[in-house]
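Risk mitigation, structural track. In case the binding assays with zinc ion fail to produce interpretable data, a predicted complex structure has been prepared as a fallback.
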Amino acid sequence: MHALTLIADRKLVLADVRPPAAPAAGEVQIRIKTVALNHIDLWGFRGMAFAKRTLPLVVGAEAAGEIAAVGPEVSAFKPGDGVVMYGALTCGRCKACREGRDNLCENVGGIMGFHIDGFARDLLNLPARLAIPIPPGVAFRDAACAPIAFATVEHMLFDNARLEPGETILVHAGGSGIGTVAIKMAKAIGATVITTVGDDDKAAKAKALGADHVVNYRADRFETAVRKLTGKKGVDVVFEHVGADTFNGSLLCLKRGGRLVTCGATSGATTSLNLMQLFQQQYRIFGSFGASMRNIRASLAKMAAGLTPVIDTEIAVTEFERGLERLESRRVFGKIVVNF
Ligand SMILES: [Zn+2]
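Fallback model:
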């Protein structure tokens, strides 16, 4: 069988590896169908000095597949069932895990495809408790976007920022994988969406997704545009993942008592913060990373109800690196998925 393996920074090979043994008690064996790309794949590909990991490493952080075999004591799945997988090796026993806050697991064994071997391989064994069934009618291609892209946004918008119908949200980088999901999820509950994009082509596409107002940040300052669009009031929520380039501007876009939720820093990881502004304006800032199993189930349910991901491109496993380049270039609108 094949496994897409990172052997050095920026060096991927499609390696021939030994297939896994029969699944042990409590495990399932999964045949991977689709892997979806995220910025975490890009960080992993480029290499991160502080990340604790050893190469070679099988890449792929988000995927969907089909149960190939079940080990003893597994009754929830049978061969042929479609599943997605939780993307981190949680313990399932600590307080956070027991309370369903999986992304705060105290004994997490690492993020798949980043710290430990990931999903870009034909077959893998995994504890059955980390597999989540795909509802009928949801394609592997779409389901593959549930564990990270959809669930991260679900967690950010509804667990952290607690976005409500009738509120106004600023979604940064509306053409990105998570940006497109955020626009669709926010519109689905009846929020007003302002989004930023980098060109007119993306502006038209973001509009078509349902965004109420689209700001081309290369042509206009988004802070000024938001101020105008909200009658100087500001927005209730900002969905941040751009980082240093936009963070302070994002705070300026919030109304008093507004919430900013962030899950990324693609333009840079450090910024300065005006503490007077923070407490006087009573801003609430949420750092958000990953999602819970519940968020993944909710994401798949939304897909089954018709809220499907925007797919930018579908590529073959041999084109994985080209997919990463496309992601890095910011030419994408939506998700890049890799078929196995
Ligand atoms: Zn745990």
